[in-house]
């Protein structure tokens, strides 16, 4: 997938000013690559993932993905393209009363006929595969539970199971392990990496945890203020570059109090606005 000088600006309803969520982003991510996106709160990570998922249209510039220009496609063709792209959202929008099995089955709805999707909503057709997918995330016992009976971390795992079950060619995940304990977070990122590699799929994940980003992803993109600060192999990123990426002039007291430099080797969850 390729972005050429892509920008997105949002109008703020309060004062009608524009926020440049992304500014002239140029990048290419090749098929099968595994990439982490890091950066401070408000850097534009979610917007970038939504742009790649074709959930957001660039206001200027261009996106080419899976050999097409999505915004030149008809409505039907765009829907078909979206069925080939999986997006795990930061707060998975799972209907509270839906059962886990149905939520996961919905991952393939875009690939099925309307009739099959409707039947599947009532009577999930592919129980064994769904159970296997949930088992990889230690959730097989929750298969028939309602989504509103799950914890935040369990809901995140349901959303990941749904994306894995979809078997997309591109899997995009927005802070997919933010509500998980450290052991589950490690396990889940390793699983995402392994599963996408096995299917030859591309994986792009935004993360606040630097240690996880650097450990699990060979390529890391640092985003700040809607612009790319660096895009390089994880092994080449220095602590100074990380300090520069996350520097927060709005939080002098917090930074002084902690007195801790940003260190990529320790698990780090940085202060958020
Ligand atoms: N729908 C929207 N309307 C107006 N402004 C928006 C909208 N979505 C995002 N923004 C603004 O765009 C900027 C980038 O937001 P985005 O959610 O992409 O950042 P982020 O890096 O994912 O942040 P976080 O780490 O806190 O999730 C922010 O300034 C945000 O306020």
UniProtKB/TrEMBL annotation:
SMART domains: AAA (SM00382). InterPro entries: AAA+_ATPase (IPR003593), ABC_transporter-like_ATP-bd (IPR003439), ABC_transporter-like_CS (IPR017871), MetN_ABC_transporter-like (IPR050086), P-loop_NTPase (IPR027417). Keywords: ATP-binding, Cell membrane, Membrane, Nucleotide-binding, Translocase, Transport. Residues 3-250 form the ABC transporter domain. Residues 253-273 are annotated as: Disordered. Coiled coil: none annotated. GO terms for molecular function: ATP binding; ATP hydrolysis activity. It comes from the Bacteria. It is a peripheral membrane protein. It is found in: Cell inner membrane. Residues 255-273 have a biased composition (Polar residues). It holds the Pfam family ABC_tran. GO terms for cellular component: plasma membrane. This is ATP-binding cassette domain-containing protein.
């Amino acid at each position: 997938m390729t972005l050429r000088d892509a920008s997105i600006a949002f109008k703020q309803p309060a004062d009608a000013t524009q926020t440049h969520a992304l500014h002239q982003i140029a990048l290419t991510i090749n098929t099968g690559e595994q990439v982490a996106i890091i950066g401070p709160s408000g850097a534009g990570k979610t917007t970038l993932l939504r742009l790649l998922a074709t959930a957001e249209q660039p206001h200027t510039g261009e996106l080419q993905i899976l050999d097409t220009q999505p915004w030149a496609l008809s409505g039907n063709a765009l829907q078909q393209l979206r069925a080939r792209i999986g997006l795990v959202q930061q707060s998975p929008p799972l209907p509270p009363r839906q059962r886990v099995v149905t939520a996961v089955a919905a991952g393939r709805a875009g690939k099925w006929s309307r009739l099959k999707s409707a039947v599947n909503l009532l009577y999930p057709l592919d129980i064994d595969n769904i159970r296997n997918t949930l088992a990889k995330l230690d959730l097989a016992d929750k298969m028939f539970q309602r989504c509103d009976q799950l914890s935040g971390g369990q809901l995140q795992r349901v959303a990941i199971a749904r994306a894995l079950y979809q078997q997309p060619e591109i899997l995009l995940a927005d802070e997919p392990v933010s509500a998980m304990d450290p052991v589950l977070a490690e396990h889940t990122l390793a699983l995402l990496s392994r599963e996408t590699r096995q299917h030859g799929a591309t994986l792009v994940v935004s993360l606040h945890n630097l240690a996880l980003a650097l450990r699990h992803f060979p390529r890391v993109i640092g985003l700040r203020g809607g612009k790319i600060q660096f895009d390089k192999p994880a092994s080449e990123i220095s602590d100074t570059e990380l300090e520069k990426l996350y520097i927060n002039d709005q939080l002098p007291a917090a930074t002084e109090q902690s007195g801790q430099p940003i260190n990529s080797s320790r698990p780090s969850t940085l202060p958020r606005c």
